[in-house]
Amino acid sequence: MTDPGPHYDTDPKAHPGLHAIAAVEAGKGLLALSAASGLELLGPAPLQRWIELLIHRFHLDPEHGSMAWLAHSISPGSVHLAAGIVFAYAALHLLEAWGLWKAKAWASWLGCLGAALYLPFDLYALARHPGWLAIAVLIINVIVVWVLARDILKRRR
After folding, report:
1. Judging by beta carbons within 10 Å of its beta carbon (0-12, 13-18, 19+), is residue 44 exposed, middle or buried?
2. Which of 10, 17, 93, 121 could make an S-S bridge to 29, C-beta 3.0–4.6 Å?
3. Same domain for 78 and 22?
């Protein structure tokens, strides 16, 4: 009797690249979770001081412009809202990381669509600021989309 080969859902060698992408997504999720926690722990006062320092350092108008608007918009409620949004971002990336690590099809779809959404922005950044960094970011995102799309296509066969 011949061996049918590795089963796709249980053999980690059957889907190379998913663990690497999962590790990156977990890292992004943990960084975002740290940022959300930092926002909640610090509150609005240090953020307002930091914005005021930037305004003075770069000789910006303290009453007009985007930095002035930002300084006036920082409040306990806006900090809680920002922390909540960053926490949701963290949860999404951690969930995606778990799903990719476990080779779940939904995680490949989520990751593929998410990375593909960045591609137009990567191309715009490359057109506006050509250089090795913009090229590297574009190449990495294309590789992520390719690996996850290949995983999705393998599952359909």
Report:
1. middle
2. 93
3. yes
31/17 Cα distance (integer angstroms) = 21
Which pLDDT tens digit goes with each residue over 113-141? 999 999 999 999 999 999 999 999 999 99
Structure tokens at 156: 């359909």
My answer on whether 20 and 92 are in the same domain is: yes
Cβ contacts of 26 within 8 Å, gap of 6 or more: 93, 94, 97, 98, 101
Q: What is the phi/psi pair of residue 10, to 5°?
A: -110, -15
Q: Above pLDDT 70, what percent of the chain?
A: 90
Lowest mean pLDDT among 2-11, 59-68, 140-149: 2-11
Instruction: Note the pLDDT of residue 9.
Output: 52
d(CA 28, CA 94): 8
pTM: 0.79
Residue type, 117: L
Same domain, 72 and 133: no
